[in-house]
């Protein structure tokens, strides 16, 4: 008899507290056998307690079979450390997978998730601030090997995004990626990240799997969301060898938080990725089919030109799951 799956639910801040309950309800409908437990981290927690994320919270996340994560507000304060960066490092979630699927194309952006400009190695004085852009052989090899495996699954082209014409660390990243791709025998090309951002928008059908560094992947996936209707539609997975966390690409959006207008589709699709990761591709497909059924009926949230609220959209998706 298999053990009961335990899913950590992290609503976080802002609209995370609105979209994650929608996604959790769908997971609970499909899997009443799962155990869901909350983990409270983020800026709101810091405002209440002075601690945005404690060691015991990390231990709880590590104890889960998977984490469904909302969004975190990270204020631009000198001494405030990013909760998301801490979690990614503590759980060693080195591969950030961001799929962008549209009419005739299916792009998967594979972002290195623990190094680069988000290394967290920083210092600041009254006269200067320094952030170390860390690119290691170990980090690069494991992210490009993950991307190669995904390109093989798709029988698609691997594109290496970099800025090697300016940054020596990207020469290092590019050369390692090319060596691994050639050794594996996969088809690849490489592009400067700025040119890639434009060409991906103009010719999305030319791309399958894109591997790049941490900040470039963050920006590129936001850019690519334009192809499918915006950030409210794009999910992501943070994968390591032992742990996995699933979250919408969008942030906490404090300007619309608490207004019941946020689009929960990215959170729902993140839940679908979670199910696929846990070995339930059928459940994952049921979530996507329900989303498509609702959208085809003209039921749209505000960002898509409609007027349906976050909770109301979730209720209709739950109904569509039973059709």
Kindly describe this structure:
This protein has 323 residues and is α/β, with parallel strands linked by helices. It folds into two domains: 1-93 and 241-323, Isopropylmalate Dehydrogenase (3-Layer(aba) Sandwich), CATH 3.40.718.10; 94-239, 3-Layer(aba) Sandwich (Isopropylmalate Dehydrogenase). Helices cover 42% and strands 20% of the residues. It is built from eleven helices and twelve strands. It has helices spanning 16-30, 43-49, 55-63, 83-90, 137-154, 168-184, 193-202, 214-224, 265-277, 281-296, 310-321; strands at residues 6-12, 35-38, 66-71, 95-102, 105-112, 122-124, 129-131, 158-162, 188-192, 209-212, 235-239, 244-248. The strands form two sheets. The protein has a ten-stranded mixed beta sheet, with helices on both faces. It has a two-stranded antiparallel sheet with strand order 6-7. Strand 6 (122-124) and strand 7 (129-131) form a beta hairpin. Helix 1 packs parallel to helix 11 (310-321). It is globular, with a radius of gyration of 19 Å.
Q: What is the 3D shape? A: globular
Q: Low-confidence runs (pLDDT<50, min 5 residues)?
A: none
CATH structural architecture of the largest domain: 3-Layer(aba) Sandwich
Supply the number of helical segments.
Answer: 11
- Main sheet? 10 strands, mixed
Number of domains: 2
Number of strands: 12
CATH class of the largest domain: Alpha Beta
Radius of gyration (CA) equals 19 Å
